[in-house]
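> run fold Acetyl-CoA synthetase-like protein
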Amino acid sequence: MLSPAALVDKFAADTPQGVWVKANLSSDNGELTWQDITWVQLRRAVDLVARQMEDDLGAGAGDETLGYIGGGDLRYAVVLMAALKCGYKPMLLSPRNSREGHASLLKRTQCSKLAFSPELRSMALDLAGESNDFMATELPALPDLFAAPDSTHYESLVKGEMEDHETVAILHSSGTTGLPKPIYVRSGVLRVGAKLTTMPVPEGRRSMVEGLYSTKLMVSTLPFFHIFGVILLVRCIHHQQPLVMLPFGKPPTAEFVLETIAKAKPTGLVCPPSILEDLCKLPGGLEAISTLDTVLFGGAPLARSCGDNLSKVTNLYNGIGSTEAWIIPNLVAADPADWDYHEWNPNVGIVMEPTGDDKLAELVIRRQPGNDYQTVFHNFPDLNEWRTNDLFERHPTKPTLWKYVGRIDDILVLSNGEKLNPVTFEKIVEGHPGVSGVLVVGAGQFQASLLVEPNPERVKAGADALVQELWSTVEEANIQYPAHARVWRSMITLASPEKPFKRTAKGSVMRQATYRLYEAELKALYDKQQQPLTNGHSVNGVLGSSNAKATIRSAVKSVLVSRAEPITDDTNFFSLGMDSLQVMQLLQTLSLYHITCTTRMVYENPSVDLLLRAVTNGQANDSVLNSVSREEKMSAMIHRYSKFVPMNPPSKARGALPRAVTGWRSYWRPRLLARVAPTASSGQTILLVGSTGALGTHLLHELINNPSINRVYCLNRSAEAIQKQITSFSDRDLGTINFTAHPKVQFLKGETHQENFGLDPDVYAELARDVDLLISNAWPVNFNSSLESFEGVIAGTKRCVDFAASSARRAHVVFVSSVASVMNFSAVRRRDEDAADEVAWVPEEFDADNSLPAKQGYGESKHVASCILEKAARRGVISATILRVGQLAGTAEGKGLWNQREWVPTLIKTSKSLGKIPRSLGPANDGIAWVPLDMAAKVILDLVPPSVQGTMGNLRCFNVVNPQVAPWNELAAVVQQHHSDMEPGQTLDAVEFEEWLNELGAVGVSNGAEEAERFPALKLLDFFEGLKADGEKGLWRFETEKGVELSPTMAQMGAVNGELMRKWLDEWEF
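> ok
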C-alpha cells in the first residue's frame, strides 16, 4: 500500500486543488472563517517539514523514532507524513500528558529526536534537556506552514510502498491506568481500515463505517494524535472526503461546534458525547445538528435524553474502537431508537464472552483464518484473540444488540470520553494523616470528584478547614494526572461519620456500595457545580477591588498547574493548552471568590488582562449565544421538513394504486370542483399548484395548447378559483374559456401543506396514480414578511416531495423558485482580490449555502424549499427541477398588465410622485434581465417538458432570466420621456439612488400613512434599502448557457427595450 505521504504526493500531482481539509488557521479572536487546504498545500507543508527534519535532525534510520508534541492542530498530520518521508517512525505525543508521561514514552521508544510547535517550546526543551544526545527542532507556525512555496519540494528518502508490518505511526494509551504506553500502528491497519466499506454486511443492512467515510464534509473535534484522528485522516486521504477543523488555539466546545456548523455548512460531525450534550442545551443546537446527515460519537455513553432527541433529527452513530483495534465496523441500527446499542457485523469476529455477572459480557475479537478485515491482528500478528476489557449488557428483547456499560477494571469513563484510573489518585490522598478513606467518582460526568472520609478526630475541625488542609495533597495527586483527570477544589465533599464507607473483610473500600451510599450527596454536588455556569449572566460588583487581578491570575495558574511555560498577564490561555474542562474549572474557581463570568467571556478574553477588563466592564452578556442567525433559522426549517419516509416502490401501472397512498384519511374533506372523468389517452398528466396568478395563468395557457398534455389538474386554495381563472384569461386576452366543463382541465380546491393536499382521499389517490409532473407555483410574494411566515408553503413543499415519492409514475417536481434565493451571491462568493468591475456569475447549479438568499423572508423561504427538494433528490427520493425565476415583467405581446404592487411599477409610480427617479440601482442591479411574463411561461415548459422522466436522485437547476441585459439608465430615460409626454411641463429628474431613498424616507416621516397611495414604495422601503445595499456588493450576473441550449424561447429572447417599457407604462396608466 502507498504510504500516506506517497498518496498525498499523488493527489497533489493529479488534483492539486482538491480539498484536504477546511481550516481556520488564525489564533486570534476575530470572526471565524475557514479556508480550503488543498492537496498541493499539504504536500508543500509536508515537504517543508521533512526538509527541516533532515536538516536539523538528520535522516531517519528506518526504525528510528521521532517524537512530536504540539498544539493539537493540523501539524500532527503533517509531521506524520513528513517523518515517513525522511525515514522516521513518527510518535504523536498528546500535549495533555504529564511530564513524566512524556519522558516514559520517549524512553520506551528509544526516542532521542523531537519536533515541537512554538506553543509547547518550554515543555519540549525541558524534555530535551534530559540528555546531551537529545535533538529537537521547532516547526513553523501553522499559517506559515501552509503558505510554503512550491520550491520546497522534497524527494522522499524511502519507497512509497509500505508493507503491512511496517509502522505508520506510534500512538499511546491515555495514561489513566498509569504511565502511557506506546502503541505501534502498522500499515496493514491503515490498508484494511481504508477498505472497511467493502466488508460484507447482512442483506438489507448498512455498516456504520459507510456513513463515516461517505459523508461529504465532516466536522471533527478530535486531534490527529488520537486514534480517531488517524481514522479521519485515512478517511480524508483514502476516500478524499474533507474535514472541517475547529479553530486553532481554542478548545473544542459546543459553542464553537455550533458556530462551525452554521458557517462551514458541513454534512457530518464526529465528537465526544459531552459536546453533543452541551449542543443539545444551547439555543439552536438541536436545530443545527438536524442539518447534518451523520453524527458519530464514541468513547463514552451519551445521555439518553440527548441521544433520543438527536436520533430523531439526524443519523446518530454510536462508534466504538480503540488505538489497538481501530474502529469496529458496527451495523447501523435497524431502529433509530436503538442508537445507544451496538450490533456487530458477523465478519468482524466478535465473541461476547460471559463474565461473573450474569448480565454482562466482555467484547473479545477472535482471529478468523483468511479474514483480512480484522485490523487488530495486523497490529498484533502473534495473537489469536484480543480482549478489550470492555463490558456490555444485552438488550432485553433484541439479542443481537449490546450496550456498553464500562470496563472490567476500575477505570472511570467521563462523559467526554476521557478515562481515568482512580486508584493512584486515591492512594496519594489516603496518605494524608487526616484521611481514613478516599473515593474518586465521576463515571458519566464531565469531571471527577473526590469523596473523602476524614479521620474521626479531624471531623470537629469543620469542612472548610479540612478541605484547606487536604488541598496540597490533592494538588500533588493532580500533578500526576492528565488535565481531564484532575479534581477541582470545589469537587471535594466529605463523608459523614454517621455513614462510614462500606468495606470488605480485608478493609478495602467497596467502590460501588459506597457510591450508592452517597449517591444523593454526589448528585447534589454535581448539580450545584452547574449553577454558576447556567445562571452566571451577570458580573459581581466586588470586582472593582484592587485584588481582582491577583485573584484571576492565581485562578488561572491553579488551573494550568502542570504547565512549565511562564504565565504572564498577557499570555493567551489557549496557547498554553487550556481546554474546555479547564475553562469550566476556571469559572468554578473564580466563583468561589464571587467572580462570576461565562465560558464565552473566557474564550473571547483569553488572558488575565483581557478577562479582568471584561468582567469589570460587565461583559457577561450571552446575547451572542441566545441569538439565532438567519442561517440557523433556515437550517432548522430545512431539516424540520427533510425527514423523508421511505416509500414502497410504486407500481408503474395506471390501474394500481401505490400502497403509500391507499387507505389514507383526510382530516378535512374539501369540495371537488368541476370534476370530470379522465379521458383515455397516452398523453401526460400535470398537477399545476397555483394557476390563477399571472405566471400560473400563462403556464396553464401553454399547457392547454400543448397537444402532448392529456390532463391538467389545477390545485388552488380559493373556492372561487374557476371564476378567477376565467377572469384572468379574459383580462390577458388569452381567450374566453369555460373551465367548469373543460375536457382537459380539472380544478381542485386544497392546499399543499395539508394532509392529502386537503383533498378527498380518493381524489388524492387519483392524482398519485396519474400525475407525471408537479409544478409548484403557489407562493405568497411579500418582501416584508419573515421566514417563519412562509412556513405553511414550506411545509407544502415537503408534502409535494411525499406525493412525488409515493406516486405511481414517480412524478417529477418543478419548483418555481426565485433569484431572491441567491441575491446575496456577490457578497458571499466574491473574493477580496476580485476587481470591483469583475462580474461574479451565478452558476446554473444548486447551492445549499444558507448565506446566499436575500436578507428577507421571501428569498429565504424560496431557498429553504429548494434545499428540501435538493436533499430529497440527493437521497434518491424524487427527481426535481429548480427554476430561479428573475423579475417577471409585463407581457411582450397582447394585454398582460404588470402587477402594480410589484417593486418596479411601485418604484416608477413613486418616482413620478417624488419628481425624481434613480439614475442607477447600484452596479449589480443596473443590468436589467427582466423576462416578459408570456415568454417566461414558454421558457419554463421548454426547460421542463411535460415528458421529462428524471431518475430518482436527479436534480436540475436553471436561471430563468433574460440572457440579454439592458442598462437601467436607458429604461429610466424612457420613463422620464413618457412622464414628460403624459404630464407636459413636469420633469422627472434622475438622481442617485441614495438621494431617492432619502426623499422617500422623508415622505414617510413627515406625512405618514396617508401618502401610501401616492408613494407606494413606502411599503417596500426596507426592500429598496436592501436593493441598494445588494447593488453595491459588486457586479453579478446569472449564467444562462444551459437554459439557452434547451429553450428556443430563451435563445431568441431580446433585451428589454424602450418599446416594451412604453407598452408597460401605458398599461399602468399612471
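Confidence is low (pLDDT under 50) at residues 531-545, 619-627, 646-681, 1005-1009.
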